Amino acid sequence: MTSRRDFLQKITLSTGLASLAPTLLSATPATNSAQQPARKLRVAIMGLGSYGTRVAKAMKDCQSAELVGIVTGSPEKIPVWKKEYNIPDKNVYNYETVGQMKNNPDIDVVYVITPNSLHAKHVMQVAAAGKHVICEKPMADTAANARKMIAACEKAGVKLLIGYRLHFEPYTRKVIEMIQAGEMGKLNYIDNYQGFKIGDPTQWRLKKSLAGGGALMDVGIYCLNAARYLSNEEPIWVTAQETKTDPVKFAEVDETIQFQLGFPSGLVASCATSYNIRFERLYAQGDKGFAELSPAYGYGPIKGRTHKGPLDEPVVTHQTAQMDGMADIILNNKTIDPPVDGQEGLKDMIVLDAIYESIRKGSAKMKL
Amino acid sequence: MTSRRDFLQKITLSTGLASLAPTLLSATPATNSAQQPARKLRVAIMGLGSYGTRVAKAMKDCQSAELVGIVTGSPEKIPVWKKEYNIPDKNVYNYETVGQMKNNPDIDVVYVITPNSLHAKHVMQVAAAGKHVICEKPMADTAANARKMIAACEKAGVKLLIGYRLHFEPYTRKVIEMIQAGEMGKLNYIDNYQGFKIGDPTQWRLKKSLAGGGALMDVGIYCLNAARYLSNEEPIWVTAQETKTDPVKFAEVDETIQFQLGFPSGLVASCATSYNIRFERLYAQGDKGFAELSPAYGYGPIKGRTHKGPLDEPVVTHQTAQMDGMADIILNNKTIDPPVDGQEGLKDMIVLDAIYESIRKGSAKMKL
């Protein structure tokens, strides 16, 4: 096991975030410009459900980001969160008062963790309040809404990041780094799948009006996003097939979807996702080697191997690493490769739209 | 490592070939009926190319089958094979004289190992000569030809087996056995791929008139056949996508094909095959466990693991096991599950036809 410090040095090298390490490694304030002392990114979470709670807990270990505010429609949660995270009254908002955040200089960014179909509305509200936005993936329910969100953030002059936590995860970064260093040779096959058996049939994830879609939106996006960051190319076509074994539970959203991607180099990807199959794999096959992560997309620990043997990367809390990394992007204008911005989110949304269109058209090949 | 004897006892149990073991284990002739003493299956090979040579060499270790004859269009090969395998002049045929085999009581069966598109013609010639036939996979170039072959063999009263060597291979049988015993629970995902980088651009495998197709016909059929024997179901739909990076080398046949299958239970399969990617995997995911073979389809050694840990099955020469098993099927009317007969071959051909049709129709979903 490598130490957290080793990991941070490693991710700095592998991501090219030259100043990430100093920012993240130092608990002592340093100056990052002549005018302004370095400080932590001050985050409000919008949507205090299970994933919002996970992010909040993970942020307790952040070195560059801190939870300072909440936006919630559930008044009963307010005292609990205030106590747990030392949140002052002035940083507590609901969905009607979020616009007033523009008068609050103590919040830098709002992390939108609401149901997918509400992302567009909420991101645009936050942008209008002049705050940077982190939006959980999928960025939206359609590419059209994703474009509106990007335009709104550009107009407001705020940054828009998408909650792609794995871009900051050591095993994932190691595989990306090995591919980019040419260790696999020319990549020619990707084989990704991710799914789980979803429980409570009344949850919002099974309602199209809130989730926008089913397994594909929720976890299939990991396979798609991974195919894109492994390939370092944008797909030129997609095909898809839907299978439904429980038309009652999955009356509104997709249960199982297989989809395939073709890339300009000739690389192809076979992917699958399901709310009724527990399976998980990231796989990249090149002329000279391969990489496999399995588990690959969950909250960890991730396991992996390549043609060189087992991977042994540091095990981190994904959301801690993500929020520290995003602090550096937002506060210090750093970049990460592959990016985690709105344009990256839009690229996934365009393919997700095309997957659903392929299914509507009898699995027809959709050019991208 | 398990001994060969252990394996034969095992395969007997797992296949239900109750009398396979005595036949295979005993070098001493025994009676299998009151009228007739047990004897070896006397085989002629038609087509003395690289795979025909591999089968001939493997048969040297058979206990229930022996190579006694050849059919070849290459006169220069005759003295070499005669010497190597002690083949008498009377058992040497060419493609014009094969009909005369009907007057030769010393040959039981002809193993047709010629280019795919010639299988139909050759199998029908052999059937007309009153000999049983083993036909290498793919059985034919189209399902229509496969049906003609079955009809011809039925009319002639001879058996028709397809060269599905993996049906006799211990790792493959172990996985089938575990699935059938319910150890994986309900199967819900299959992920098979097989490919290699094909060499010599002038070879018959790249000519449509001889090969009938490319990677799909040659090695993709393993993924398809495995999906069928793992699932123990017949697919109800198929979709497919073709990718070509070298339109000169692969001017006549497919280079890379992805295909997907849906089964009545809701099980789905993602498969891929290529003449330009070296990759190989058989994977079955169930509710309660999984099995993976990789390598899975080559001549061995095959490696595998399940949710219970690594598999450790005997390593056999596939073609030796196949020919001993087929001797028992032909001489003793034994059956094997999954079967290796013409109907099994036809089921694959129907899906292969539909895969090519899906590609012609823009990856449209083809009902089966």
Automatic annotation (TrEMBL), chains A, B:
The record's annotation in InterPro entries points to: Gfo/Idh/MocA-like_OxRdtase_N (IPR000683), Gfo/Idh/MocA_oxidrdct_glycsds (IPR050463), GFO_IDH_MocA-like_dom (IPR055170), Glc-Fru_OxRdtase_bac (IPR008354), NAD(P)-bd_dom_sf (IPR036291), TAT_signal (IPR006311)
Print the keywords alphabetically.
Oxidoreductase
Where in the numbering of this chain does the Gfo/Idh/MocA-like oxidoreductase N-terminal domain appear?
41-164
Its domain of life?
A: Bacteria
Q: Which residues form the GFO/IDH/MocA-like oxidoreductase domain?
A: 173-290
**GO function terms (MF aspect):** nucleotide binding; oxidoreductase activity
Q: Could you list the residue ranges that cross the membrane?
A: none
Q: Which Pfam families does UniProt cross-reference here? A: GFO_IDH_MocA, GFO_IDH_MocA_C3
Q: Which SUPFAM superfamilies match?
A: Glyceraldehyde-3-phosphate dehydrogenase-like, C-terminal domain (SSF55347), NAD(P)-binding Rossmann-fold domains (SSF51735)
What is the designated name of this protein?
A: Glucose-fructose oxidoreductase
Name the species this protein comes from: Persicitalea jodogahamensis
